[in-house]
Amino acid sequence: MARTAPSQTVGFDEPSVLAEAQRRRTFAVISHPDAGKSTLTEALALHARVISEAGAIHGKAGRRSTVSDWMTMEKERGISITSTALQFGYRAPDGTDCVINLLDTPGHADFSEDTYRVLSAVDCAVMLIDAAKGLEPQTLKLFQVCRHRRIPIITVINKWDRPGRDALELLDEIEQRIGLRPTPLTWPVGYAGAFHGVLDRRTGEFIHFVRTAGGATIAPERVLSAGDALTIADAQWTTAVEECELLAADGADYDRDTFLGCTTTPVLFTAAVLNFGVSQLLDVLVHYAPAPAAQLDIDGEPRRLDDPFSAFVFKVQAGMDTSHRDRLAYARVCSGAFERGDVVVHAATGKPFTTKYAQSVFGQQRTTMDVAYPGDVIGLVNATALRVGDTLYREVPVHYPPIPSFAPEHFAVARAADAGKHKQFRRGITQLEQEGVIQVLRSDLRGEQAPVLAAVGPMQFEVFAHRMATELNTPVELEPLKYTIARRTRPQDVAELQAQRSVEVLTRTDGALLALFADRWRLAAIEKEHPDLVLEPLVAAA
Ligand code: G4P
Q1: CA gap 371, 208 in Å, rounded
Q2: 0.90 exceeded by the pTM?
Q3: Nearest-CA neighbor of 131 among 80, 182, 76, 188?
Q4: Residue 59 is labelled as binding a ligand
Q5: What gap in Å lies between CA 150 and CA 3, rounded to an integer?
Q6: Which of 215, 309, 431, 462 has its CA 20 to 30 A from that of 48?
Q7: What is the CATH number for 369?
Q8: pLDDT digit string, tens, across residues 73-94
Q9: What's phi and psi for 404, nearest 5 deg?
């Protein structure tokens, strides 16, 4: 979702909506699997006193059952597939009150399309890096999505309690590989593996962390002057001070405009598992991360924050609660105040939509959501009419731009394993397609009973098959196809393309005509032989 330059000004005409929007911080954590995203999420919740003990969210390896990994498949694989939104209030030590909306993103590359949708709903991202590993492939891909969407990034270098790489070297890697200039706000005292605390570059003070048993509770912090720091950390403090002098000489200082303009990134150091550095991150979110700004509609016109309610759907998910078999649409509020029970307009159909069942959802935990403001995420229950990308509004019509689909690279024919279950099969396909689990392509040749599924990553097929069998009680058979490339084409080019060897043209449900090719050589040969054909690339996967 395109947005205007973030504004921090609060107007006077609708003080409550603007003031409430101003308090919101809506962000996602982007990282490679295992960098510590779940641990950090939990640590943030612990610091905001949403939970009283670590282990409530992060459920791996014997800790208490996880909140975000709720699907069986996720549990078995230990990955987070689905998107959830955690909302909590947080009062910073200086008394600033904020509402934090933390949107969870799937960690696996196969679900990058899902991640892309979630990132369309945030105002900021936290790029979480493992101190021993530096920038990893999935982090790089997600970073590119943020860059594409112009999302400001706060960098967090995690696991500093373990042996890892040199801090300056990690900053260099960030600058060299992704062209984002790091501007550290804190600097580690002690090398990776011996983490005593951080030097706060803004005050010059030493924030000394104290370990708690198993990292289960908030780690106490002592704020010490530079003089006192010397007596505690001595050589390590001196090294930290020297390194900070190097950073200052290099001009690596925080700058609001370049941070919001996505050319610099504030950096923090943490050990999320010990809850070290987490309060500093919350503080940075409160004081530095942008509040929601006016969103641009499909014509590029901004919808003011205090205009009547509007929101867009960035995620549709069914089967979260197997006992209820419900279907949830997540919508990000862009303008106005939302009150549960409001009747809003579904822009795609022009029909009224009643929001009686609005919830705040994080994993299995649901709470009724009575009011919401720009930046908040509403979970709308049993929203069967809503699709990803749809706009909802009140009073003054608005239409937000659609969220683009990614170019699929994996294709398979789906058939019902039980020939008598065609009706359920068709219903299941429609539902999972509307949720964005897979794209569905059809042709007269293949018929309704054997549509082609298209996916960015092959694990989407597994999720599809698993959910068809378990939730929709319709086991399917999948026959992989040898295509790897899809291009958008025109009706007048179909006959020519179909005449080519190993090329097939199918229609996606949104009406797009997609020509499928076995590989880029085949595509290149056809493009060369028939330069008149239109073969447009689709949005590349992150
Ligand atoms: P993810 O969601 O990004 O995939 O990562 P997750 O939080 O599950 O963390 C991956 C592993 O890294 C976990 O270890 C977790 O405890 C560990 N970890 C996270 N943050 C830190 C940190 O700051 N320091 C250290 N030393 N480790 C950290 P695990 O062995 O997979 O699970 P567990 O037994 O610790 O739960």
Answers
A1: 40
A2: no
A3: 188
A4: no
A5: 9
A6: 309
A7: 2.40.30.10
A8: 444 444 343 446 788 888 888 8
A9: -65, 150
Report long-range pairs for 347-354 (Cβ below 8 Å, ≥24 apart). Answer: 347/390, 347/391, 347/392, 347/393, 347/397, 347/398, 347/399, 348/387, 348/390, 348/391, 349/385, 351/385, 353/383, 353/385, 353/386, 353/392
Q: 205 with 63, same domain?
A: yes
Q: Is 161 in the pocket of ligand 1 (CB under 6 A)?
A: yes
Lowest mean pLDDT among 39-53, 346-360, 426-440, 476-490: 39-53
pLDDT above 50 for 542: no
Residue from 28, 87, 38 nearest 66 by CA? 38
Same domain, 61 and 115: yes
Report how far ligand 1's centroid is from the alpha carbon of 441 (Å).
40
Residue 409 to residues 43, 286, 293, 436, 538, Cα–Cα distance (Å) = 37, 40, 35, 15, 11
Which of the residue ranges 269-278, 347-356, 500-509 would you say has the lowest mean pLDDT? Answer: 347-356
pLDDT in tens, 523-537: 999 999 999 999 988
For 294-323, what is the mean pLDDT? 86
436 marked ligand binding residue? no
260 lines ligand 1 (CB under 6 A): no
Q: Which domain holds residue 149?
A: 24-291
H/E segment holding residue 334: strand 327-335
Residue whose CB lies within 8 A of the most ligand 1 atoms, among 32, 34, 38, 39, for a mutation test: 39
Phi-psi region of 369 (alpha: psi -120 to 50; beta: other; left: phi over 0): beta
Does ligand 1 lie within 6 Å of residue 32's CB atom? no
Q: Is 162 in the pocket of ligand 1 (CB under 6 A)?
A: yes
% of the chain at pLDDT higher than 70: 84
Q: Taking every pair of C-alpha atoms in the chain, what is the biggest distance, in angstroms?
A: 80
Q: What are phi and psi of 242, to 5 degrees?
A: -60, -45
Residue found by looking up tokens 């003080």 in the block: 15
- The total number of residues shown for the chain amounts to 542
Task: Write the pLDDT tens digit of every residue in 218-251.
Answer: 778 889 888 888 887 788 899 999 999 999 999 9
What is the number of structural domains in the chain? 3
35 CA: nearest ligand 1 atom: 3
DSSP reduced 3-state for 40: helix
